[in-house]
């Protein structure tokens, strides 16, 4: 799709949407949001960019294949599941820092779990969409 | 004891990465694994003989009562010694037998897997653990029978064996679960204390019947015996190990293990006596007509298993003692004869006894081993077989019933045939004139003929000092089966009595039978003609019927059209739900509980209807996709109205992405060409409307039901206290039900990989062959 308006807009929308998706991810534990929605919004950001500039160019921005996000995400989730076992607790026990960190808020193992979900969702959606759209 | 089970399993899995390594001269480490385990169990002999039973408990799934409970009593120890002792011989033998075979590593991987599984079966003190190892033995047996996987017969035999033992295992599981639930424990040593509850329960015949099916299929009892001759397609070390000495005795072990729990009832005793009796005479007679060495041995093994079942069925003290001794007797001579057969096959490349003769001149030590085994099998005085046979006759003669005479005649007849079969396999190939084509044969490595020779000699040594051997190996085993002290003392000489006369008569009659029975291909063919009424034929016929049914089912139901799958699934769901609705009585609608309808709700319901109308009538794919997403957005709005922001957000983004996905895919498809016929359209409309109506009715009914808020209250109260989150939906996703989410992401990843590999990794047309 060659549209000057869309191309210009998407250039600015991509970082804004990504920021928004990250915002959704972080606030998920207290307000509507979370890793799943965050991941979907981030994917939409890239999909919008690919509509305006072509999938090849979006892939260039991404640098790495979206497929590689999947193992990273699964790994982070799995680590946050297993991590409490090192401290002798049952898996998936929520571990939290005592004090909140400025801007981000409370940090705990649940957040890392959500980050994993976020990355997996981006990886899955972009892998499916980009492989189909690049397939001739 | 767990480590003895794990040693084999771990080594077996190590052979996957280090398979190449083990094909070199390092293969010598393999036989020392069973040797090491054998020594371990030998060291336990003295304490077990003095009545101490080792118990080990390792939690596995304690909430389900499934644990690694192990217990080493007399019976377990006898089997553990057989498994590791004969295993040691087989490993040395097999190492030479399969030298240079491309799948050498694989073979020993399976063999180690089997050995561990079998040890697990005999050591398990928990019926579920026992069952798991039981199935593992079936699986390893499947791989070993089908070891020559380029041979069609091997594959077929492997599948037959797996199906028969697998079906048996299935019944066994059902029986064990019933038993465990009735007795409220899965631990074998505790089951014995609840014997009264168990045998007086109304379901007793059912679960005992199921357990019988498991044991009979595994131990090749009539009418399930036919998988065992087929299993002889496996390399000979496997036949010697699995299909004569150990695995097929798992069924016998199971019956023996459950005798003190379930035994001594009419149902138990008569079933075992009848099945065992038929099996032993049927197979013994069959063995006389075989001309393949392995065929003879297979049928005589089935017959021996029949004898064991029969003895357990008699259930008297004498019979139990006889069974516990005969297990050892049979394992010793049968493993020897199989290994001898393997050597003959290896050197002469034939197993046809009409062609084999005079081999004693070239394979002298092998001949000695075979002769000793044949004599033990025949029950010559001073062999261990003599003791075994004596005990069997003692058991049948003293059976307190009018049947004693008939049972003795049955036992004598079976044993006579077995004597002849033993001579056919152990003596016939070695006597007479050596055919010229076999003159060049030379003796194989000592690692091949030494194990059978040792086992053969043991048969004589044990026979000369039965008292000591009986005390060491069999006394406590018989106690475990009998459930009480048996005061067993074996003697070489019982005095000049009926048993001795019977024993000598059997020997004489068997020898005569051997001399006059000339097996030939013609006779075999005559017997084969009766195959049409054999259980094998009938069961295989049934199996092919099942196969035909499943083919027809697949062809008719799975036509590969997405629309037809949808249609079937929805119609099925409709019928089920409608039936349930109809059962639950009239539907009342509580208008009080319904919230008033607002103007904007009416507005987007109208939008919904419009979108649906467009989807149904449009002739463009793109329009229908867009209309579908309109419906999706409308549903998002509903979520927003009823305060579910998380759902609304997710639905909104998902809908957007789905639409994009649809457009990407549809872009590549041609336009609509074929439209469904009018009739089909009407049918689909009815199904769709029906589904909508049923779901609406269910929703209205749900509203009328009193709601329980227990679960949502729990999450509401605890999400901040326990998980430090204020957004309950998110807390449930990442914390309370985090494992679900974890696996959902895994499923998503698999889907992505599926799409990726389907599209990217398509075969080029040149690779499609």
From TrEMBL, chain A:
Q: Keywords in alphabetical order, please.
A: Cell membrane, Membrane, Transmembrane, Transmembrane helix
Q: Name one GO cellular component term.
A: plasma membrane
List the source organism: Sphingobacterium wenxiniae
- Spell out where the chain crosses the membrane: 12-30, 36-55, 67-87, 107-132
According to the lineage, what is the superkingdom?
Bacteria
Domain (Na+/H+ antiporter MnhB subunit-related protein) spans: 5-127
Name the protein family. Belongs to the CPA3 antiporters (TC 2.A.63) subunit B family.
Subcellular localization:
Cell membrane
User: Where does this protein chiefly localize?
Assistant: membrane
**Could you tell me what this protein is called?**
Multisubunit sodium/proton antiporter, MrpB subunit
In the UniProt record, does the keyword Transport occur? Answer: no
**UniProt membrane topology term:** Multi-pass membrane protein
Which InterPro entries does the UniProt record give?
CPA3_antiporter_subunitB, MnhB
Automatic annotation (TrEMBL), chain B:
Q: Where is the NADH-Ubiquinone oxidoreductase (complex I) chain 5 N-terminal domain?
A: 62-108
Q: Where are the transmembrane segments?
A: 29-55, 75-95, 107-124, 159-178, 198-217, 268-289, 296-314, 320-341, 362-384, 404-427, 448-469, 492-516, 565-585, 597-616, 623-644, 656-673, 685-704, 741-759
User: Start and end of every NADH:quinone oxidoreductase/Mrp antiporter transmembrane domain?
Assistant: 124-409
Looking at the record, the residues that make up the MrpA C-terminal/MbhE domain are 682-760
Q: Which terms in the Gene Ontology molecular function aspect does this entry carry?
A: antiporter activity
Query: Keyword set for this entry?
Result: Antiport, Cell membrane, Ion transport, Membrane, Transmembrane, Transmembrane helix, Transport
Record's bilayer topology term: Multi-pass membrane protein
A cellular component annotation (GO) from this entry: plasma membrane
Predominant location of this chain?
membrane
What sections of the sequence does the record tag as coiled-coil? Answer: none
Tree of life domain: Bacteria
> Which locations, inside or outside the cell, does it occupy?
Cell membrane; Membrane
**Residue ranges of domain MrpA C-terminal/MbhD in the record:** 606-670
Q: Which InterPro entries match?
A: CPA3_Na-H_Antiporter_A, MrpA_C/MbhD, MrpA_C/MbhE, ND/Mrp_TM, Proton_antipo_N
- Mind telling me which Pfam families this protein's record contains? MbhD (PF13244), MbhE (PF20501), Proton_antipo_M (PF00361), Proton_antipo_N (PF00662)
Please provide the Gene Ontology terms (biological process) for this protein.
monoatomic ion transport
Cite the NCBIfam families for this sequence: PRK12647.1 (NF009287)
Protein name from the UniProt record: Multisubunit sodium/proton antiporter, MrpA subunit
Query: Which source organism?
Result: Sphingobacterium wenxiniae
